[in-house]
Design goal:
alpha/beta; 2 domains; 6-stranded antiparallel sheet; 10 helices; elongated; disordered N terminus
């Protein structure tokens, strides 16, 4: 039996090592687990202890359930400690809204187990769980979107087809930017050029407001083959999640309807350094 348990532990460690090696570089560690900002996924390990009051046949099942509950609690803790934007963490939003808090807790129960349960030497169970930060859980905390789009679109100009752009990349590599669920792009006067006010809710829930990447090629699936690339001049906001761009770049983005359209569809990426 000891040989079988040791072999199972080795297999578990190999699986977990393979998962770690396949992770993107934009991984932020927490005591409970980690978030991969490139793919907007949270990961945590859950440990389950079998209930000794149950029959031997049901103890493993109880340990798996316990491990899943442990992973869920850890993922929820990570989620609460993420920056929503430059001014608030997600826990601030949940503390102010019981409805949002309940929706988040119900949503995060839908975790995905990405490895087979590992039986440890002490009969406990180890599982590796993942949750994708899109859809219902983001809908629970996302404020109304797209409020400024109609206003800016009405005042915008059309653009000739030969100069049509497909998306936006903001080069933030020279800035120490913090990551968030809903960051903003601002002009030098603090005016919002991109954020919740410009985004359509459907792509925001499906894709996230922006994508964080470490090279431009990783962003092409999202921003298309002809993106505008602009330079981030500085970071802004209490948490340092927002990026400031030049007045000329800001004007280019919001003065033409075609550019407003790709902003509205969340075809935006932040090019960042690998270090978190």
């Amino acid at each position: 039996m000891r040989v079988v348990q040791t072999f199972a532990l080795v297999i578990c460690l190999l699986i977990l090592s393979a998962i770690a090696l396949s992770q993107q570089t934009l991984v932020q560690e927490f005591p409970e687990g980690a978030i991969d900002w490139s793919n907007m996924t949270m990961n945590a390990q859950g440990i389950g202890i079998p209930n000794p009051e149950l029959s031997p046949a049901r103890q493993r099942v109880s340990a798996v359930i316990s491990a899943r509950e442990d992973a869920t609690d850890k993922l929820l803790s990570i989620f609460k400690n993420l920056n929503f934007d430059s001014e608030a963490k997600i826990n601030d939003i949940l503390s102010a809204s019981e409805i949002a808090s309940n929706q988040v807790e119900n949503s995060i129960l839908e975790i995905k187990t990405i490895s087979m349960p590992c039986l440890m030497a002490d009969s406990s169970i180890l599982i590796d769980a993942e949750y994708v930060l899109k859809g219902k859980i983001i809908n629970a905390i996302l404020a109304p979107t797209g409020a400024r789009f109609a206003e800016l679109a009405a005042a915008s100009q059309s653009r000739a087809p030969e100069s049509l752009y497909t998306g936006l990349i903001v080069d933030c590599r020279e800035r120490s930017i913090a990551y968030a669920i809903a960051p903003k792009i601002l002009d030098e006067n603090g005016q919002e050029i991109y954020g919740l006010g410009l985004a359509d809710r459907k792509p925001a829930l499906k894709l996230g407001l922006i994508q964080y990447v470490t090279n431009e090629n990783d962003a092409l699936l999202r921003v298309g083959e002809k993106p505008i690339t602009v330079r981030g001049l500085s970071v802004s906001g209490k948490a340092g999640c927002d990026i400031v761009i030049s007045e000329s770049d800001a004007s280019l983005l919001i003065s033409f309807r075609d550019n407003l359209d790709f902003l509205n569809q969340c075809r935006v990426a932040f090019l960042v350094n690998q270090e978190l």
